[in-house]
Amino acid sequence: MTQLKITWKKSCIGCPENQRRIIKSLGLHRLNHSVIHADTPSIRGMIDKVPHLVSIEAVE
Predict the structure, then answer these.
(1) CA 46, CA 60: separation in Å to the nearest integer?
(2) pLDDT, tens digit, 9 for 90 and up, residues 2-56
(3) Which of 19, 41, 43, 55, CA to CA, is 20 to 30 A from 33?
(4) pLDDT the model gives residue 60
(5) What is the largest CA-CA distance in the chain?
(6) What class is the 3-59 domain?
């Protein structure tokens, strides 16, 4: 199964509260922090809500 490396690149200052909650639910704690998640529809849905705040790359 493909894995996704998600890195928090831009601050949430001035963002709506729901976007802040999505960043926390992805497991990101600070800028430039990276996490690896399985490529599932729920994770893709969260990423689609905050594409301007994170960067994504596929990990095999």
Answers:
(1) 21
(2) 999 999 999 999 999 999 999 999 999 999 999 999 999 999 999 999 999 999 9
(3) 41
(4) 83
(5) 35
(6) alpha beta
Q: Cβ distance 25 to 49 under 8 Å?
A: no
Location of structure tokens 């001035």: 14
Backbone angles phi, psi at 30, to 5 degrees: -155, 165
The CB-side HSE value for 52 (13 A sphere, CA atoms) comes to 9
Of 35, 18, 17, 16, nearest to 26 by C-alpha is: 35
